[in-house]
Structure formats: C-alpha cells, structure tokens
Design a protein that fits this description.
Blueprint lengths: L10 E6 L11 H7 L26 H14 L5 H12 L2 H11 L2 E7 L9 H8 L2 E7 H9 L5 H17 L3 E6 L14 H13 L6 H18 L2 E5 L18 H5 L7 E5 L6 H10 L3 E4 L1 E2 H4 L3 H9 L8 E2 L8 H24 L5 H20 L4
Parallel strand pairs: 1-2, 2-3, 3-4, 4-5, 5-6, 6-7, 7-9
Helix pairs in contact: 2-3, 2-14, 4-14, 6-7, 7-9, 8-9, 13-14, 14-15
Bound molecules: zinc ion.
Pfam families: Amidohydro_2
Protein name: Amidohydrolase
GO molecular function: hydrolase activity
Length: 385
C-alpha cells in the first residue's frame, strides 16, 4: 500500500497573531509562559528542582511534543534549559531564525489578527521579519475601545465605528473583520435593538470589557453588514480561547440563528478555532451553509496528540473544501513551526487510515491534504500564492 505523505506541501496559516522581534535571550520560565494559553503569569513559577523524567509543573502534552521536536531540530538534550539555551543562540538573529523555521515547514502565508498583542505590531515589519506573505483581519473590539474613550453620544459613536470598519475593509491586504465577542458577552447574538444598545453603551463606557451585551450585539450586526457589502470575511472567535472567554456561550451552535437570517445569506463567515471543543457543531454549520467556513487553529497545536482525533472528527461532516489549516500561534515562531509539523504528522495518520480502509487512494488523500493546507485558502479567499 502506498503511504500518503504531506511532505513539501506549502502551507497557509489562516489564523495566527504576530509576535515581536526579540533579540534578548529568553529565560526558561519566560519561554514556558509564552507557550501557555493562560494569561495568568503565576501559572508557571516553580521549574526548579524537577526530577529526571518529571514534567515541568503546569506543562501539558503540546509543550511535551514541542520540546521533543525542538530538541531534535536543535540537536540538544530534551530538557527546558538545554532547549532554551540552544534556541536563544539561534534566535540572536531573530529574523533569520524565524525565516528558517517557517521555511523548514513550507509556511508561506498567514492571515493575521493584529488585534493581539496590543499595542499592535506593524504588518510590514512582521512581513519583513518573517519573510511570509501576510494578510490581515481588522478586529472590531479595539475600535470600540478607542472610540469609547472619546465619550461620544451613542449615535455618533456608531457612525464613527461604521466608518472605521468600512475604511479598514477597503485597505489592501485586509481580508475581513474579526470579533472576539465570545470573550465579552458570548455568541448568542440578539436582534439589532438600537434602544437596548444605547442603554448598554453606558455600561461599556464605564468598563470597556463589560458584557454590555445589547451594544456588542448591535456592533456585531454592523460588522456583518459591512463585511456583506464589501464582500469580505467576518471572522468570529468560537470555542475556547485565553483565560477570559465566556465559556458557557462560546460554542458555534449559538450562531446558527444569526447565520440563517436572510440578510446574511451571502455573508462570508470564517469560524476561527472551529469552535473547539464543540468542533462537530462547527463542522455541521459549514456543511449546511454555503458561505460559512472553519479553521482548525488553536485546537492545533494546543491539544497535542488530540489534533489527530480532531481532524478525523471535523471531517466526519465538514466538506473537504470548507476547512482550512490554522495555528493561532501568538508569541514565538516555534509555535507556528510546531503547528505545521504536528498538523501534518497527525493528518498523515488520518489519511493513511482512510487509504488503508480503501475509502480513497493515496493520490486523492494527498490532494485533500493540499486542500486543507493551502488550496482551500486560495479558493475561498481568491488569492494565488
Ligand atoms: Zn487568535
């Protein structure tokens, strides 16, 4: 039986964040902190005195797999101190190191959310540093926060908000908007109610992280409208995220009623993170709505060995042409690198299993690999690499 390999296939990562060039050496504990989804710095404090074979307190499978791959790549011992020492040596020339890692895994392009970290990193700077092609989405929440500081009357706030989105969508390289409403008031979006929105606006002015649900829902609808008229993509954070997420209202199923509205039938939507751990809901939604797509970011690589199960589960229902590769990498280039490595290695196992079961031949399996790694991106976003 012919083995399927995804070696050499180019990759576009449809959801990641930029990171800053860092020429100063990382300390082992800081490096560890950068690998975690926790936004709580105390998550990793005690990394001294671990015994041989004992995992560092607080580390999980994805970090384990990363260390394993990094030790092999850097040709060093598999303990945190040796790994960080070896990577620091290479990372002295940070841009070269980033380019080397991206090239090693054929990572050629990324759609990036410059909304994190704040203050934002410049797109051209990141493009130059990484050597990859960069597209951008424009996050709506920082716009709301900035305008909120001006203490405008609600109608003026909304007017300026809409102008801002419209102008951003005209910019070269901007493929859509993004919302993290799942981190604030959740995905159960209400009707567009101006009066309720205006009342909630007062809550928002006092605290820009407050739920202020009716106002956020109102702003969400405006973003959907602007994406529709610009024929660009609405990226919606679904599923788990960092420590702030409203977990009980983060599953993609909450969005279905909104998507079914006749005014949004042509709106292109990109479900970021594929709703993990509710990825079957996302897979179902993209299987019934022609303009809704999903990616496998965050769950890849942060669930470690789980990536294999997730790819298999998502493709139980999701059409092959609706799913795209992603990483949600957000701090160090090793995240982007392992994202691709782990994804390809897990996907190969899934594809080989399908070939073995005679559901398809190896040629078709590799083609499906190419679709999810970059071809779907090209078709859906109408760009050629
Ligand atoms: Zn993200």
């Amino acid at each position: 039986m012919q083995k399927v390999t995804l070696d050499g296939i180019k990759v576009v990562d449809v959801h990641a964040h930029p990171f800053r060039e860092q020429n100063e050496p990382e300390s082992p504990v800081d490096f560890l902190r950068k690998l975690s989804l926790s936004v709580i710095p105390e998550m990793f404090t005690n990394i001294e005195d671990v015994e041989k074979f004992q995992p560092y307190p607080g580390t999980n499978m994805w970090i384990q797999i990363l260390f394993r791959h990094m030790a092999k790549y850097l040709n060093c011992e598999q303990d945190l101190t040796s790994i960080v020492e070896a990577r620091n040596k290479k990372a002295k020339k940070f841009s070269n190191y980033t380019k080397e890692l991206f090239t090693d895994v054929n990572l050629e392009g990324l759609i990036m959310d410059f909304g994190y970290p704040q203050p934002p990193i410049d797109r051209n700077d990141f493009q130059q540093m990484s050597g990859a092609r960069i597209w951008e989405i424009h996050r709506i929440e920082p716009v709301m926060v900035e305008l909120g500081k001006q203490n405008l009357p609600f109608s003026e706030f909304i007017g300026k908000y809409r102008d801002n989105l419209r102008q951003a969508l005209q910019k070269e390289g901007v493929v859509g908007l993004k919302t993290i409403i799942a981190y604030r008031s959740g995905l159960e979006i209400g009707e567009k109610d101006e009066q309720a929105a205006e009342a909630a606006y007062k809550e928002f002015l006092l605290n820009d992280k407050a739920p202020a649900k009716a106002m956020r829902d109102y702003c969400f609808h405006i973003a959907m409208e602007e994406c529709t008229s610009a024929d660009k993509f609405m990226h919606i954070h679904t599923g788990i995220g960092d420590g702030e997420v409203v977990l009980s209202k983060a599953s993609p199923g909450f969005l279905l009623d909104t998507f079914r509205k006749s005014e949004y039938k042509d709106t292109k939507v990109h479900l970021v993170h594929g709703g993990y751990p509710w990825m079957e809901e996302a897979a179902f939604i993209v299987s019934i709505l022609p303009n809704v797509y999903m990616d496998i970011s965050l769950q890849n690589p942060f669930t470690g060995h789980g990536v294999e199960r997730i790819i298999s589960q998502v493709l139980e229902l999701a059409p092959f042409d609706k799913v795209m590769y992603g990483s949600d990498a957000f701090t160090v280039p090793e995240m982007n690198w392992l994202g691709v490595k782990l994804f390809k290695e897990c996907f190969e196992r899934v594809l080989n299993d399908w070939v073995e079961k005679d559901y398809m031949d190896a040629g078709q399996a590799r083609y499906i690999g190419e679709m999810i790694l970059y071809k779907n991106f090209e078709n859906i976003y109408k760009v050629k690499l």
